[in-house]
Amino acid sequence: MSLRVAMLSVHTCPLAALGGKETGGMNVYVRELSRELGRMGVEVDVFTRSQNPAIPRVVPFAPRVRVIHLPAGPEAPMPRERVVEHLDDFVEGVDAWRIAHGDYALIHAHYWLSGAAALALRERWATPVLQMFHTLGRLKNRVARAPAEREPAVRIAEEERIIASADRIVAANAVERTHLGRHYGADPRRVAVIPCGVDTELFAPRDRRAARRALGLDGRPVLLYVGRIAPIKGLGTLLDAVARRRARGQALRLLVIGGEADEPADGHEASLRARADRLGLGDAVRFLGAQPQDVLPAYYAAADVTVLPSYYESFGMVALEAMACGSPVIASRVGGLTTTVHDGVTGFLVPEGDVDALAERIAALLDDPDLAWRVGREGVRWAAQHRWPCVAEAVCREYATLEARAGAHLAAARCR
Fold first, then answer.
1. How far is CA 116 from CA 89, 96, 110, 158, 159, in A?
2. Burial letters for 133-162: b for 16+ Cβ neighbours within 10 Å, e otherwise?
């Protein structure tokens, strides 16, 4: 009998377009992990809050894997701090689905909202909970740039409760495991370290000149940013660094992928566009909006450097995607990026918010093609060790510590 897993992703659907306020690496993680578990014979139902009544309630997207959209509050996008008000409805919806369609052997929760729902379901089902946070509220508050960026007290309290109560926790790297212990008192024996993954069939090296021709780019060096448009991502630092290099006569083009079409006129992206104009970068910066994931490899291939100037990252999946494509990476020396990027080998790390250091490292890579090639080559080799089949096998081994039936699926793992 195959293992049935209830995968919880309350606040964001794994099938949603990437780059918006509530979409990013976690969406990719849930989608790709679920797909690979399905290939291993595990039945996975991904439960998420419905944000559009026109979307089908049930969306099969891989063998043995489906996304189930449950009404919980208004079926429309809402800030995460409001989603918590509707968790009881979400829990009722998941439980009703179980009653109608059969029991689950495990609950795998992503982010604190899902963790809170998972603990409520465990009380009803007596089913073990595996938790992954993706980001931590206390860590985000340490780097918040303004009061509006601080995480609410309810998040911190719920994270403390989940960390104390979950049967098993997955951290994306040793840095996150240390943070869980230092800032939340997590017992390290209950925390497994499993790095995030990358699709090395989709994200793979390709010819740079061909990619640039396909994207209509000229001969100027290309910097690439991919991610949410949010203050914590540090895009303002990158704009300042580009302006610094331009002032010294270096022609550059910056491509920014991410953002939402319906962002308010006074939102963060609007402020970044205004900042670019003030810096005289109108002809050098292109805001491209969110892009489908199957389009991203062309941009990574076209880029001379992919830059992650974040103030906080729990892992940095964009860095791994870029490395898989052979794009040299420059990232902030923060959080999980310090383990995802091997400084001087697969990329370079600079102090967060340090415009001069970032500008100098960009210049060093652009001025030394041999160095850029070596770093790109090592990045490809490093990314090959983080394929999704390997992540799924490691996760399934954690499942087996909580439910013996999971062990039978390990023979189907493709991490070879």
1. 13, 18, 10, 7, 8
2. bbbbbebbeebeeeeeeebeeebbebbbeb
**Which domains are seen in the chain, by residue range?**
4-197+387-412 (3.40.50.2000), 208-385 (3.40.50.2000)
Helix (H) or strand (E) holding 170: strand 168-171
CA–centroid distance for 292 within its chain: 15
The confidence score (pLDDT) of residue 159 equals 97
Instruction: Tell me the percentage of the chain whose pLDDT exceeds 70.
Output: 96
How buried is 339 (Cβ within 10 angstroms: 0-12 exposed, 13-18 middle, 19+ buried)?
middle
- Residue pLDDT, tens place only, 156-203: 999 999 999 999 999 999 999 999 999 999 999 999 999 999 999 999
CB of 195 closer than 8 Å to CB of 388: no
- Tens of pLDDT, residue by residue over 352-394, are 999 999 999 999 999 999 999 999 999 999 999 999 999 999 9
Other Cβ atoms less than 10 A from the Cβ of 363: the count is 17
> Residue written as tokens 């892009």?
291
What is the C-alpha separation between 228 and 146, in angstroms, rounded?
18
Instruction: Pull the structure tokens for residue 358.
Output: 């970032």
Q: What is the CA radius of gyration of the chain?
A: 21
Residue 320: burial class (beta carbons within 10 Å; 0-12, 13-18, 19+)? buried
Amino acid identity at 389: P
Residue of 52, 45, 54 whose CA lies nearest to 96? 45
Closest by alpha carbon to 212, among 293, 324, 307, 300? 300
Q: Is 53 exposed, middle or buried (0-12, 13-18, 19+ CB in 10 A)?
A: exposed
Residue 305 β-bridge partners: 223
Query: Does residue 23 carry a pLDDT above 70?
Result: no
| Residues 372-389 as b or e (16 or more Cβ within 10 Å = b) | beebbebbbebbeebbbb
pTM of the model: 0.91
Which amino acid makes up residue 135? T
Q: Rounded to whole angstroms, how far apart are CA atoms 382 and 389?
A: 15
Rounded to 5 degrees, what angle do the CA atoms 104, 106, 112 make?
120
Whether residue 19 has pLDDT greater than 60: no
